[in-house]
Write a structure and sequence with these properties.
This protein is an alpha+beta fold and 80 residues long. The chain has a domain at 22-70. The chain is built from 2 helices and 3 strands. Strands 1-2-3 form a 3-stranded antiparallel sheet, covered by helices on one side.
């Protein structure tokens, strides 16, 4: 029989990302980085074909790249 193991609590990242809010995109992929808790998330862009992700780096460094995106049709309509 498998024994339940306690889950280690990860620090909440919402406090650090709320100040740097970016519009929700249908092609952005966030991956949690457990090895480096300071970066938090690894951001990738799947635009235009969703086959090969383009790594954008950590959440903080990708904000300027995502804001400069000129493909306005990829942002979710509830963000306008």
């Amino acid at each position: 029989m498998a024994m339940l193991q306690p889950v280690t609590d990860l620090p909440p990242l919402a406090a650090t990302t709320t100040a740097s809010r970016i519009r929700r995109c249908t092609f952005r992929r966030l991956s949690r980085v457990a090895a480096n808790p300071e970066s938090g998330y690894e951001v990738s862009c799947l635009y235009p074909d969703r086959r090969v992700p383009l790594p954008l780096g950590a959440m903080e460094s990708s904000i300027d790249i995502c804001r400069a995106c000129t493909a306005s049709h990829i942002f979710r309509p509830d963000e306008d």
